[in-house]
Specification:
The chain is of the alpha+beta class. It has two domains: about 250 residues, no CATH class; about 160 residues, Mog1/PsbP, alpha/beta/alpha sandwich (Protein Transport Mog1p, Chain A, 3-Layer(aba) Sandwich). It contains 15 helices and 16 strands. The strands form four sheets. It has a seven-stranded antiparallel sheet, sandwiched between helices. Helix 5 packs across helix 9. The radius of gyration is 24 Å and the shape is elongated. The chain binds zinc ion (ZN).
C-alpha cells in the first residue's frame, strides 16, 4: 500500500510537470521524464521481457550477423549519455522492418532492417535511436503515465509487493508485443530519441544525418503500408529538420567510422530464410467481443485457492505475481492507443486493505478501482456465500474497450492473507450470456 501511495503522489507531480517538456530547443540537455519505476526495475523488467521474447522470436543463428550488430551497439552504448545500462543487441528474423528496445537495455533489431539500410551508419542510426529510448527511460515513463487509466496495471501495482515485474505489467499483455504500451512512444519521446541518438552516433564516429536519411527512406518507400518501425516510432513531424538542427549543436568532428563489414553482413541477411508470419496475439476492438464459452470447465489451482474456468479460455500472468487474468484470447482488446485492455473475462488477486472487515475493505478496493478508471461507478451490491465464506458482489459499470458500456462484477471475500477479489468483466451486450459462466466460476472457488 505504501508503494501505491507513492505512485499516486508521484503521478500527480508528474502530470504537473508534463507540459514543461514541450519547449526543448536543439542542444538542450536530455533527461528521463516522470517515472514511478526505479532504474533497477527498468533493468529487471527488460530482462524478464527479453527472456520471453527470446523464447518466442526467431533469433538469427548466424553469429557473424549477431556479432556485427552487437559491435555497433556496444560502440554506441559506450557513451556516458547511454547511462551505463546493461545493453544487449539481438537480431531477430521476424517479418517487417523494425527495431525495438526494452527498458533497461535489451535491443532487438529485425533482420530486414539491415537489408533495407544503405550503409552501416543507417543501421547505427536505428540502434542509437533505440539506445536513446532506453537511456531516457521512455518505456516505463509511458507505462507510468498510463498507470491510472489502465485498470489491471493499477490493480497489480496496488496489490503486489514482490514477484515478477513483467507479471505485474504483462499479465494483460501490456509488457510484450510490438504494439505494447512499453514500445509505443509519444511524438515527444521520438524527438528526444532522435536528438540523443544523433549525439550517440556523432560520438561513435557515425554521421548522424544518416539516421534522418534512413527514416526518410523508410517513409518514402512505405507509402500507405509504412514499415512497422514508423508505427511504433511515429514521425514527430519535420524529423529531418529537427535532427539537422540537433547536429548543428554538436561539436565539430570527423565522421565516417565503419567496421567495413556492412556489405558482407547485408548479403548474409539476404540469405536468411523468410520470416514466419506472427500469430495474432490480441483482437482489435472493432472485431467485437468473443462468443460465449461452450464445452465445459477446467480447473486452475494456486496454493491458496482453486477455481474452474471455461475450456478455451486461457490464464495470463504467473502465479508468483498473484494477479491472474482468465479470459479468452479475444477478450484482450487492443485499443487505439496501442494498449491492451481486458474487455471480456476475469481478473483476480488479493488486495491489502487497512480495514479488516468485508464491507469497509470492499469500499477501499472499489475506491481504488474508481481512482484507476474514473468512468467506473458502482450500481449495487449484494451478499453472497463463497465456499462457506461471506462475500460481496458489487456491480459496476464503466466504458468498454469494445465501445459502449462495460459491466463489471466485483466479488470480494475476506481471507487471512487479505481481501480476495475477482472482477468479472463483460461488455453490456454479452453480460447476460456470461452471467452463467461467472456464476459457475464463483461457485467453483475453494480456499485452502
Ligand atoms: Zn523511437
Amino acid at each position: 500500500m505504501l508503494q501505491r501511495r507513492r505512485h499516486l503522489s508521484a503521478l500527480l507531480a508528474g502530470l504537473l510537470m508534463l507540459p514543461a517538456c514541450a519547449g526543448r530547443k536543439p542542444g538542450d540537455p536530455l533527461k528521463p521524464g516522470y517515472n514511478v519505476y526505479s532504474k533497477e526495475q527498468d533493468i529487471q523488467l527488460g530482462r524478464e521481457a527479453a527472456a520471453q521474447i527470446r523464447q518466442q522470436a526467431d533469433i538469427v543463428k548466424n553469429s557473424a550477423i549477431q556479432e556485427y550488430v552487437n559491435r555497433i551497439g556496444q560502440r554506441l552504448a559506450s557513451s556516458p549519455a547511454a547511462d551505463g545500462y546493461p545493453y544487449s543487441f539481438t537480431v531477430i528474423n521476424e517479418p517487417g522492418i523494425n527495431a525495438f528496445a526494452l527498458p533497461g537495455g535489451p535491443v532487438f533489431v529485425y533482420a530486414d532492417l539491415i537489408e533495407a539500410a544503405d550503409n552501416e551508419a543507417q543501421v547505427a542510426g536505428v540502434i542509437a535511436h533505440e539506445i536513446a529510448h532506453v537511456a531516457l527511460r521512455h518505456g516505463t515513463n509511458q507505462a507510468s503515465k498510463s498507470q491510472l487509466i489502465q485498470l489491471p496495471a493499477v490493480l497489480a501495482g496496488a496489490v503486489i509487493g514482490d514477484g515478477s515485474l513483467l507479471g505485474q505489467l504483462g499479465q494483460l499483455g501490456i509488457g510484450l508485443g510490438v504494439n505494447s504500451i512499453l514500445l509505443r512512444y509519444s511524438r515527444d519521446a521520438e524527438t528526444e530519441a532522435d536528438a540523443l541518438g544523433a549525439r550517440l552516433m556523432a560520438e561513435a564516429g557515425y554521421n548522424p544525418i544518416e539516421m534522418a536519411r534512413f527514416f526518410e527512406k523508410l517513409e518514402a518507400e512505405g507509402g500507405s503500408r509504412a514499415p512497422q518501425f514508423l508505427s511504433s516510432h511515429p514521425n514527430p513531424g519535420n524529423r529531418m529538420k529537427a535532427i539537422e538542427a540537433e547536429i548543428q549543436t554538436l561539436p565539430q568532428r570527423q565522421y565516417g567510422f565503419s567496421t567495413g563489414n556492412f556489405q558482407q553482413i547485408k548479403a548474409a541477411v539476404k540469405k536468411l530464410p523468410k520470416p514466419k508470419q506472427p500469430q495474432q496475439q490480441t483482437t482489435a476492438a472493432s472485431a467485437g467481443p468473443p462468443p460465449a464459452p461452450t464445452g465445459g470447465f477446467q480447473n486452475f489451482q494456486t496454493d491458496r485457492f482453486t477455481l474452474a474456468y471455461p475450456h478455451g479460455w486461457e490464464t495470463f500472468g504467473d502465479r508468483r505475481s498473484r494477479v491472474l487474468t482468465i479470459a479468452p484470447r479475444q477478450g484482450l482488446v487492443q485499443t487505439g492507443s496501442g494498449t491492451v485492455s481486458l474487455g471480456y473475462g476475469a481478473v483476480l488477486s488479493y488486495f491489502t486493505p487497512s480495514a479488516r472487515s468485508l464491507g469497509p475493505a470492499t469500499n477501499e478496493l472499489i475506491s481504488q478501482l474508481r481512482q484507476a478508471n474514473s468512468s467506473m461507478r458502482a450500481t449495487g451490491q449484494r451478499q453472497v456465500t463463497v465456499a462457506g465464506n461471506p462475500g460481496l458482489l458489487t456491480n459496476m459499470v464503466s466504458a468498454s474497450p469494445y465501445g459502449g458500456t462495460e459491466r463489471d462484477v466485483v466479488l470480494t471475500v475476506m481471507r487471512p492473507e487479505g481481501l480476495f477479489y475477482m472482477v468479472f468483466v463483460s461488455p453490456e451486450q454479452s453480460s447476460a450470456q456470461l452471467g452463467d459462466t461467472f456464476n459457475q466460476m464463483l461457485q467453483s472457488i475453494r480456499f485452502y
